[in-house]
Amino acid sequence: MAYYIFTLKFLTPVHFGDAANGGFLDKIAMSCSADTLFAALCNEAALQGEAVVQQFVEKVSEKKIAFSSLMPYFCVLDKEKKKETDIHFYLPKPLLTDEVNKQSAKSFQEMKQLATRLKKQKKTSFIRASQISQLLQSRKNGVAPELQVDEFAVPFVCGRVNLRDEKPQPYYVGSYVFADNAGLYLLCSVKEDADIDFVKKLLSSLGASGIGGKRSSGYGKFAIADVSCKLSADAGKSDDNNAIALMLFAADSSLQMCIAPLCPQQEDVLSVKAGAYRLVKRGGFISSPELGENVKRDSIYMLAEGSCFSKRLEGRMLEQSIAGLSHRVYRNGLGMFLGLRDD
Alpha-carbon distance 186 to 72, whole Å? Predict the structure, then answer.
């Protein structure tokens, strides 16, 4: 498999719904799950014809094409030269049941500092890729590391009024506005080199249409900032994308972290129970000219990004039949994994 990084620069605010907190318009997430991205790419493929959609679904189902959820990145700028000097790529914080598993004798001041760091870590959803090995080391020595967190985006809540009913109804819409030097990125793997051009075209089309909710209001439009970053198994350890490359090719690692929502196969249930995981509710709406209006799709619970297991699990492509719709609706629960190491 060949692996690529696509960095997306958002040109407008984004609205990614948060089904785990009720799915209300004012409840938002900063990142976007792989199943939502898959559905959006299917819609773009549909604009090119049914054959293109079927081709895309088959390639993803057969794992000839795979991708992660959208995760944040931050460009470090040289203010004097006004140019980028580095890019920080962030990953979901691993769900580890024993992040600090032993407490040696410490002074009161050291214990205060440790407690403060642990509390700060609990609030951190993402961690720089190059700092994950440092976090894993902390399980051995009982020291909570200082984790770097950049400012990616600012949340906004806007008041709106629904004028479609007889009586105006006020409501609120939440969104994130990304900094000029920040955005979201995804990891994509392809079995055949020609498929990366296929993915690029779909992503470019999606950027013009927008991703997430409230697209009719102009939300979620983006440009692909970098399409040529191919990851190598011979990468060093110096920066984030090299760290990601090492983890992608570390299929033999005894700790595997999921970076896309996963719906496991029946035979993997025991491995799931032995791992450290979090369930996340995935919902959404189906939009099609055949239906005439948006229809709420069945919600399902999946294993969230950051869940960790002893091996890479086999996920599933879920199918759903909708009354009045001539084609089936798919949800990507295949997942994607990184092998974590503490060296």
Answer: 9
Average pLDDT, integer, range 157-186: 87
User: Hunting for tokens 């799931």 — which residue is that?
Assistant: 272
Residues 205 and 199: their CA atoms lie apart, in Å, by: 10
pTM over 0.70: yes
- A 10 A CB-CB count for 167 gives 6
Domain ranges (residues) in the chain: 2-339
Residue 4: beta bridge partners?
188, 230
- Cα 61 to Cα 58, 143, 178, 285, distances in angstroms: 5, 42, 32, 21
Q: What is the pLDDT of residue 252?
A: 94
Long-range interactions of 85-89: CB distance < 8 A, separation 24+: 86/239, 87/7, 87/240, 87/241, 88/128, 88/148, 88/150, 88/240, 89/5, 89/128, 89/129, 89/185, 89/240, 89/241, 89/244
Percent helix, percent strand, percent coil in the chain, to nearest 5: 25, 35, 40
- The encoded tokens of residue 118 equal 């642990």
What are the beta bridge partners of residue 190?
Answer: 2, 65
End-to-end alpha-carbon separation of the chain, Å? 24
